[in-house]
Design a protein that fits this description.
alpha/beta; 2 domains; 4-stranded mixed β-sheet; 7-stranded parallel β-sheet; about 375 residues; single chain
């Protein structure tokens, strides 16, 4: 997948959090699918409606990124294999691609004791991006923020949060940007304006991979069937890095805001009930989410729907990351700029558009048709081959 010299049409995918579970799974998974070792399960961009939308082919993706962790990517992949996330034998089969991506990972920040100010950090991160693009001969680089959730910054904060430093660097380097997390990222007026002035497409924030995905399906059902929801409560049990990061109440609050927004936007209000997030290290890379929904039926009859979602977050997230990187790359190639509400299908806190998943999917398919215009020949995705 990754070669010493990339083809001029190759596309860079630069992960913030490049040695994390999501990025590692995405890199290994992309290599596996491109080599025909596994099917593209969970990748919407590998389905028929996107076949001739001009998306960059999976083998043309070149990976790099920033991270403050120092565990090499192949070792991280081995740990994910031991955790049951990656199938046995895959790390060995795609070792060359993991090594190539590892060689393109640069030190993130700010690290403890780092004396650089915001401007110096942004300049350093942007230089890493422009060097990656020029050295590998890439047509463009899409920056995907997939690092751990950070707390919402205080209103009087003097410095930008790390996610916004990376977002500012992406803008400066002329890179399309995806915020896959609830962290601030481009979510400041100055950075949104800067992205607009550079005419860059961007999308976010906070991808929905489990509990909120299910909420975005169920909430429209209750609304469309005229069944009033009285209360909607939820509990999440998380292990791994997500569980540790969300043990911080401020980070959990940032995460829960998106879960509440799905209900508020769909139902027109937030029902009674809260979402709780518990760190359970023994679960490792796996998570369990429970929802308890109390609603009214005909003649005031009281009813309840309960759901249980159990899954591996990085395996749910990785195909979405690859989808978004390809969609943003094609949008940039087509000259689309600004926020892309058509990609609300992927996010808890999208850039406008409908709230329910069915309506969001319809809009995403319309976006695919829009991308097809002037699609260059010879650039077909796997679904078209």
């Amino acid at each position: 997948m990754q070669q010493a010299t990339s083809a001029p049409s190759a596309t860079g995918v630069w992960f913030v959090g490049a040695r994390g579970s999501v990025a590692t799974t995405a890199v290994a998974g992309c290599a596996a699918v491109a080599a025909g070792l596994h099917p593209p399960t969970g990748m919407v961009t590998e389905t028929g409606p996107f076949a001739d939308a001009g998306l960059p082919a999976l083998p043309s993706l070149v990976f790099g990124g920033h991270d403050t962790a120092d565990c090499p990517l192949p070792k991280r992949a081995e740990a994910l294999t031991d955790a049951g996330v990656l199938p046995h034998g895959l790390t060995r089969a795609v070792r060359a691609e993991l090594d190539a991506a590892e060689a393109e990972i640069r030190a993130g920040g700010p690290l403890p004791g780092d004396r650089r100010d915001d401007e110096e950090l942004i300049a350093s991160f942007a230089a890493d991006l422009t060097d990656f693009r020029a050295r590998r001969g890439l047509a463009r680089v899409v920056v995907v923020h997939a690092a751990s959730t950070e707390p919402t910054p205080a209103a009087d904060a003097v410095r930008l949060p790390p996610s916004s430093l990376y977002a500012a660097a992406a803008i400066r380097a002329g890179c399309p940007y995806v915020n896959f997390t609830p962290s601030t990222g481009l979510g400041t007026p100055a950075l949104t304006e800067a992205a607009a002035s550079r005419k860059l497409p961007h999308a976010g924030r906070d991808a929905k991979t489990g509990q909120t995905l299910l909420r975005s399906v169920l909430a429209p059902m209750f609304l469309q069937r005229a069944l009033p929801v009285r209360a909607w409560s939820g509990t999440n049990l998380l292990g791994g890095g997500d569980g540790a990061a969300l043990a911080d109440p401020a980070a959990a609050a940032a995460k829960n805001a998106g879960k509440e927004r799905v209900l508020a936007d769909t139902l027109g209000r937030i029902p009674q009930g809260q979402v709780h997030i518990d760190d359970v290290p023994a679960l490792g890379e796996w998570k369990t989410a429970w929802d308890h929904i109390a609603f009214d039926g005909f003649l005031g009859s009281r009813m309840v729907l309960q759901t249980i979602w159990q899954g591996c977050d990085s395996a749910l997230a990785a195909p979405l990351v690859l989808d978004l990187a390809r969609l943003l790359a094609r949008a940039h190639e087509r000259g689309l700029t600004g926020p892309l509400p058509e990609l609300g299908f992927y996010f808890k806190d999208p850039d406008g558009g409908p709230a329910g998943l069915p309506a969001q999917h319809t809009r995403l398919l319309s976006f695919a048709e829009r991308l097809k215009a002037a699609a260059p020949q010879g650039r077909l995705s796997r679904a078209a081959r």
